[in-house]
Amino acid sequence: MSNDQASLPVGERDVPSAQRLHKVLARAGVASRRGSEQLIAEGRVRVDGRLVTEQGVLVDPHTAVVEVDGKRIAVDDRHATYALNKPKGVLTAMSDTRERCVGDLLREAGPDFAADGRAGLPAGLFHVGRLDADTTGLLLVSNDGELAHRLAHPSYEIPKTYIATVRGVVAKRAVEQLRAGVVLEDGPAKADEVCLRGSQRDRTVVEITLHEGRNRIVRRMFDEVGHPVIELARLRIGPIRLGDLRSGALRALSSSEVGALWAAVDQKAVRA
Prior knowledge:
By secondary structure, the chain is of the alpha+beta class.
């Protein structure tokens, strides 16, 4: 066994939650137990940055960073992250005495998840970032505080893509302004990408990607270039897409999807 590998096994007496690596991989949905053993034997698995090729290594899924073929795998079964398609008029809040909110949607969705062999939704879920009441689309919900912090913090620059229906026919000059940056009351803001998706009469559909998350920033940017937003929906957060998730519905992210989110924030941390 190499020196790197020798430091990997975790004694069960020291860490009660330690489990054999192939079982951790199988539970995360990477492969069957036998398939996971094969991945380990082929040198495709790393734990905390160190290559593991020996069978039977013990790891703590609550703290270990496990990668398969260079991609991080979500192995901590205490944490769960979901995609929610927030409807219009729903507040991004876990509770509100007067208005319908995200917390209400989660309480309504909980029983549906018991049918998947789980006792409803896990405790401690909260929304990651915000969408204003009039904006629909993708909102992440998680009980993983560290992942949520990184996704929401501006320093990690996680790109978010929106589809906006705006007033007027958007000319090339307005697109260039959005890409170059506009000055708002709380500082400059610019889009990473802007694509015109079509126009009809006095309306234009625009896809816009940016990595900022300031309050109502997309609406304010379009206001600044003279094209107020009529409708706005978020389609993507980093590697996670809304897809065909119906309005008001919730779906659990797969282990690979959560791993992709971690890869996005880890990559940014390395670059920083």
